[in-house]
Amino acid sequence: GQYVLVFECADFNLETFFSSQSKKGPVDLPEARDVLSAAASRLQQCEAAGLVHGDVSLANFVSKSGTRSGY
Q1: What string of DSSP letters covers 3-27?
Q2: How far apart are CA 42 and CA 47, in angstroms?
Q3: How many C-beta atoms surround the C-beta of residue 14 within 10 A?
């Protein structure tokens, strides 16, 4: 059998983060690097645990806190 994890829907994700940042002007490169590095680290942790995500996209990296530190 297979296990499926389901999480609550969050209204703040990397897609909305980068979209809102780009409307203000150029995205701050060091901040973007930090956010994407954190996201990559989480993916690496999932892979190490044997978990597979079927739809990796910016919209599927969510933060309950609504800040980059929440990733």
Answers
A1: --------S-BHHHHHHHHHHHSS-
A2: 9
A3: 21
